[in-house]
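name: query_chain
kind: protein
chains: 1
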Amino acid sequence: MATSPTSLLSARLVRRYDIVLVVWIVFWVVLAVVAAAQISSLTGLTDPIVRTADGLQKVTGALSGLGNIPLIGGSIGNVVKQVDDAVSSARTGAADAKSTIHTMSWLVGIALGVGMVGLGLLLYLPVRLAWRREVADVRRALAAGPDDPVLGRFLAYRALRGMDYSRFRAWDRDPFRPLDDVDVWPLADLELDRLGLSRR
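structure:
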């Protein structure tokens, strides 16, 4: 008989793993939000560039009138236009950087949160669902016949397979002898206890 991956679990252990999973999810969601907020706060680095660009545009606006002065106006006008173009380019670059940082903060937050929460669920959920199905199957069998000898032997064999060696050797009979001629329910009750169930 192949050993089920859920045979190493018990109802108490599953409850602990459920708590660990909830803590894992909360931790990574909080960390993702904090990381996104920290990255988003870097958009403030572009504010001095925008303020400087605003100040320079006021200066170039004031100097643009000098372009009409005969003889020197053309040269001043060209310089003012070059400065104005550079200021506009800096403002556009700052706006683009701000937008990129904002987008990056969302992407990092989502990737961190969804990635790590998804990893936890991917690793634990299949085992948890298999455990739930196993418990539901035994619960239905108990409801149909709590003293069914076939169910009792099945649970007793499962209990023997899940025992550690010291408990296995301490059993008051030859553990390799068939269970057909003995009372299997003490062993079966051990397995039911592992599953968090009872015949009563």
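note: The two ends are 28 Å apart (CA to CA).
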